[in-house]
Design a protein that fits this description.
Blueprint (H helix, E strand, L loop, with lengths): L5 E6 L3 H4 L1 H6 L3 H13 L5 E6 L9 H5 L3 E5 L9 H13 L2 E5 L6 H7 L6 E13 L13 E11 L9 E8 L4 E10 L2 E6 L12 H14 L24
Parallel strand pairs: 1-2, 1-3, 3-4, 4-9
Antiparallel strand pairs: 5-6, 5-7, 7-8, 8-9
Helix pairs in contact: 3-7, 5-6
Length: about 250
């Protein structure tokens, strides 16, 4: 891509306003922490903008989405407040080539469920247990610069079965102190767009201050960036070769 990569970080931004514990961990908001991680990980610069739930059109106007190469999504308690017409707008942009990175409890976001076509339900438990995030596809671009595993001392548990379509590519698998495992780094292709679901990131833990988590999200942004090519045309099409030649 010849120009600067344009990243929009969308954050529900409710917990930071009402929960002092979350505000103390993320004083600039979860979106601000993710932006800091991305800035730390890249040398060539990226254009980063923020959008939040309580802005008009949730900050995702037609113009904003048209000027977004990769959309990062964090939501939790207010999925139902996202207007359906904005979700439709996001879906169309993904199908046209915009990358989408869905974080943690964004598995229940309207946009992720719409693109997956399933409930995206799972088991969960918030007991502050250790998570070991194993790299299961070490040759994948999203795993660049990451060791065999990333260990998080405290996280919310997500457990199988995770009601999603079989991932096109599985990059990370989590093990939790309580014994559960979970498909934590799932890649999908929809239309011309690429989607990455990444599990870690409960709001009451400093996960988005962890440098290896930043490395993974930064890698995912590069992977999900649109490919510069002409999109397929879906229309009535004349034949490329003459039809009706005599058979021998």
């Amino acid at each position: 891509m010849d120009r600067q990569l344009r990243v929009t970080i969308w954050n529900e931004n409710r917990h930071e306003q009402h929960n002092p514990a979350v505000a103390s961990i993320y004083p600039q908001g979860i979106h601000g922490a993710i932006a800091a991680l991305l800035t730390d990980q890249v040398q060539d610069g990226r254009f980063i903008r923020f959008a939040t739930l309580d802005e008009p059109e949730h900050g995702l106007t037609v113009d904003v989405l048209e000027q977004t190469d990769v959309l990062i999504w964090w939501g939790h308690a207010a999925h139902g407040e996202v207007e359906n017409y904005v979700v439709d707008r996001e879906q169309q942009r993904v199908l046209q080539g915009m990358g989408l990175i869905v974080l943690h409890s964004g598995h229940h976001s309207k946009i992720f469920r719409k693109l997956m076509g399933t409930t995206c339900n799972l088991k969960w438990r918030n007991a502050g247990e250790k998570e070991r995030l194993w790299v299961v596809t070490p040759g994948h671009p999203i795993a660049t610069g990451v060791g065999e595993f990333v260990e998080l001392p405290h996280e919310e548990m997500y457990g199988e079965h995770f009601d999603i379509p079989e991932p096109d590519e599985l990059v990370f698998l989590s093990w939790f102190e309580g014994g559960e495992v979970f498909r934590s780094g799932c890649c999908y292709y929809r239309g011309a767009g690429k989607i990455f679901y990444f599990r870690p990131g409960h709001e009451t833990y400093p996960t988005y201050h962890h440098p290896e988590i930043g490395q993974i999200i930064s890698n995912a942004v590069s992977w999900a960036a649109p490919i510069q090519r002409e999109l397929p045309q879906y229309q009535h099409t004349p034949p490329l070769e003459p039809i009706g030649a005599k058979q021998p």
